[in-house]
Every structure is written in C-alpha cells, then in structure tokens.
Amino acid sequence: MRALTFAPGHKGTLDVREVPDPEPDKGELLVQGLAIGVCGTDRELATADYGWAPPGRDRMIIGHESLGRVLETPEGSAFSPGDLVVGVVRRPDPVPCGACGRGEFDMCRNGRYTERGIKEIDGYASERWAIEAGYAVRLDPSLASVGMLVEPASVVAKAWEQIERIGSRTWFEPRTVLVTGAGPIGLLAALLGRQRGLDVHVLDRAPEGLKSQLVSALDATYHSASSLAAFAEAKPDVIIECTGAGQLVIDAMTATAAAGMVCLCGLAPGGRVHRVDAGMINRDIVLENDVVFGTVNANLRHFRNAASALAEADPGWLERLITRRVPLERALEAFEPGDDVKVVIDLTT
Question: Which stretches of 119-208 are assigned E, i.e. beta strand?
Fold first, then answer.
C-alpha cells in the first residue's frame, strides 16, 4: 500500500512510498484511510525539528489528524465494517505514571508516552491502518468529508474542559471570550465557545476575507489586528491564545477581567526576547485571582467530546475550513506554504 513517510531528524526525506499492509493484532480494527489533515506539527516533523522513529527503524508514517472507514473488526467489537472513525494520537507510557494509569495520558508526567505519526508509532497517512478498538472514536456519518477536524477540535475540547474545571473553583459565569488566532485551532475554539452561548471575539492579523467570514458565520465578532488594544476597556472573561506570538502571550496575561482565565494553546518559537514588566504581570494575576495555563494534546474523552461538537456544527461551515485538498500522490504539495486555513490529503487518490 502507499503511505506518506519520513525519516525523523532528517530534512528532505518526506515522500510517498510503498510499505507493507498493516496486520491487525488481536483486538484491533483494520481501517481504510480516507484523509488526513496537515498542521504545523507535521511541517515541523518534515523539516526535522523533532520526531522519533519506531524502535529499530529509521522511517515512519506521518499523520495524526486521521479519518478512516472500518474494514474489519475483531470478534465482539462495538464497531462494524463501514463505521467512520478517527484514531486517538497519544498512547500512555508502558509503565503508566499516575495520570496515564487513570486515562489522562494527555497529562503524562514522565514523558514516556508515544504518539502516532510523531513519536515512535506509525501515523495515519496510509491507505490502510490498524488501531486498537479502545483508541478509535466512531463519528456521525455527517462528518464523512470533514472528520479529520476531530483531532484539532479535541485540543480545544480539552481547553474548554479545563476552563470549566478551573472556573468551578468559585462562582463562574463567563460572558465573553477572546480567541487570538483564526487558524483551525482558533476557529474551532470559537465554534465551541459559541456552542456554549458565549459572546465570542476572534483576533487575527488577516484582513477581511475568508477568516472573517467564517467568524461572522458563527455570529461571532472578527477583529483584524495584531494587538489587544481594542480590549483595553471591555476585558474578556476568557482568552484562548492560539497564535504562539510572544507579545500576544505576554499581553494576554493582563488583559482579562477579574478572575479571568488565559488558556495558552499556541507554541511560541524560541529565540525572541520581549521586554516584560514582570512585577505588573504578577500584581495583576495575584490581585485579580487570574489563571494562566497551557494545554496540549487530548485523551479519549476529549476526542469523543470533539466528535459530538462537530456533529452539532453546521456541516457547510466545517467544509469551508478546508481550503485545499490534495491527492496522496501529490502529498508534498500539502506542506508548501500558503494562506490556507486547513489543507487535507486525500488518501484514496
């Protein structure tokens, strides 16, 4: 079968190759790969910023934003041939830490977890793949063309879960949320905010265009700007920071209303120095009982919550997030820079 493979740690090795067909172990599903989404993590893997091959191998299959259809199931499985599924990315460490042992492997304490398409396990960018039934999530049939969005949606489903858990420490009735960044993560965070009935604002540097249209279609407000100046007076209750832009991260820490929350979802590149008034940040967070926290990855519960959220969304809106689809035979085009919102590789062509 064909698969998109690379050699972790080596630039210029990403290509489509013939690899052996998967042989499902006991308790595993055999799945036809339909599509994968491409994100910044995949691009960093392709440029050798990080990545770990499976033990004893120098190459692996990339792809963690999966979408597939079940071909074969083990005896007694809750799945059936024809089911639409996505695969969870992370697996707990072999000698589970306390978090992994309780199913919270997205919060692994010792770093010995593995991840499909990223760390020591083949990903989903192949014409067929096998997966443990316990790490597969069934999707509503309405998500047949957009189900690869479940993985990025699982990241923001976790973010919202954490926001609500932290808020439950006291009286919590947020009204406004600001999402910085209108990429796939930011737009999906806005979607889940609107599903919660909140007044959602999205800030992005892009001028009026597709991103602003997608935000408006959610009945949210779009701000074309590169700073939080517009929120100096009417401070949001929650900020979900999805850009990783250093100055925005710093500014967000003091931009919420009292007892506000800042959830950091974006990764800031290293090497840039910003002048910071640490004392002012400290006083603001302490005196207002604010919270700043980071979140990454997702566990099985978050994937299921994301699948439910997308099943409730407007299918046409989700379809508009995908601005480019490329066939597997031309998969490298999906890694070329552009102004896309989300690029998808079709594994069936």
Answer: 120-121, 128-132, 136-138, 176-180, 199-204
